[in-house]
């Protein structure tokens, strides 16, 4: 099984007819651009009780590899009308159909934008197909004792999300919530104990700068991929090519048959 970086490079080259993806070289002194992406006036905190009020309720019982936890934090800004519950579901592996779409470690984003004054869910932005973003103003939700939770099906093998409410309406047998851990503890260049942080494991080269510490940009950004050719990402272009090809009857590339993207 390949590392995520190997797989991403290979898929990008295949999808664009042999054009190799170029990636930024990760810094070793901790000065990643990601670390400086938090906008002025914004605060990031691990507000566990607040996060539990808005965490997505995910259907995972059909998966071969289930998420270990949700990593998250609360983002607030004086210049924004919403607070953001930033979540990444963490998986030990992604087992695709072939080695090319399989890799160790998988992290799938799901952001909940909450009206700062009313506390109501304003919208959600989530990985609708291999880090391609979809924004929904009125997501289906499930009400619990702790709060209001967007509901989604996690697609088998590839772990992107499809918003769905039917399962929660008709089945009471599985309404467990994933454990929430502090995203700040892993979204840093180097951890104090010397262990490998997410940014040291290929994330710095592939993640859109600002997508985590300035989550409001994901209300308009098309994907979580880092641009590597001008204002475009080879990886994102590859995924859009897969989606376009999968609109042909009988073709379903890497889970493209299940997506909210039009």
Automatic annotation (TrEMBL):
Top-level taxon of origin: Archaea
Protein name: Uncharacterized protein
Species this chain originates from: Natrinema ejinorense
